[in-house]
Amino acid sequence: MFRLSCILLATFVVLLFVKEQFSPVNAQEKSSTVAEFKFIIKKKPVLSLYVVIFLIQFAVMGVNPLLSLFVEELTSPTTVAVYAGLAISVMGFANMLTSPQLGKLSDKKGAQHVLIYSMLGVALFSILQAFVTDIWQLICLRFLIGLCLGRVLPAVNTLIRLHAPEGMESRTYGFSNSAMYLGTMLGPILGGLVVSGVGNKGLFFVCALVLLINVMIVKIKVLPNANEVFYKEKSRKEADNAASHP
User: Which of 29, 131, 169, 187 could be a cystine partner for 164, CB 3.0 to 4.6 Å?
Assistant: First the structure.
């Protein structure tokens, strides 16, 4: 009931306060979803960004649903629900604190660099979680992970927007969301298999490895194109500002 109320409230906020200036494009011959996907991923590095957003969500969601099992090892059964909720919610609080600052840094240095260092931070703190012996150590590390996660998905979405084919931005985001939800679906399933095989602590190492692989994908497949587009956009904006303020 609470979730339904929140969704209804968000719906009314959008209806009443969100205004969009939209000019429909000229009608074109309809194409299949498969054909559109093939056309979109021809634009480098969009396909690599889809892989990146899938692996991010895969790693994050692989841990979150199973975190209560690890919390139970550090606390008593009577308090596990409280501490598990705290360990997850503290990440959201950290996201809220750091997102604006990392957003400014993305505008200044490029979302691609913020993405790389944020994922490295998440990977490092994920590994450290395997060595905690107290619930408050875990909560502190979850807070630090939240600080790093605050700009991970927005950074990927920024890069997708920069590289989306002109006139197909919404469809490019649609496929991006599909990749994200695929990671959301598979993360808990494979995370459960990892826990059953190597234990709760092993899951942190696996998720950190996934994020480190993601960092390599960004550095090799995304960074060259992203740097080129970013500096072109930055130069264009500086030229526009100079022309508007002679």
Answer: 169
Instruction: Give me the count of residues in the chain.
Output: 246
Chain center to CA of 208? 15
- The count of C-alpha atoms lying within 13 angstroms of the C-alpha of 89, restricted to the half-sphere facing its C-beta, is 6
Going by C-beta distance under 8 Å and a sequence separation of 6 or more, which residues neighbour residue 52? 115, 156, 214, 217, 218, 222
Q: What is the pLDDT of residues 57-75, one digit of tens each?
A: 999 888 888 888 888 888 8
Q: Are 226 and 162 in contact (CB under 8 A)?
A: yes
Both tokens assigned to 138? 């875990």
Query: 155, 214 in Cβ contact below 8 A?
Result: no
- Distance, in Å, from the CA atom of 23 to the CA atom of 179, rounded to the nearest integer, reads 28
pLDDT for 216-231, tens place per residue? Answer: 999 999 998 888 877 7
Within its chain, how far is the Cα of 67 from the centroid? 19
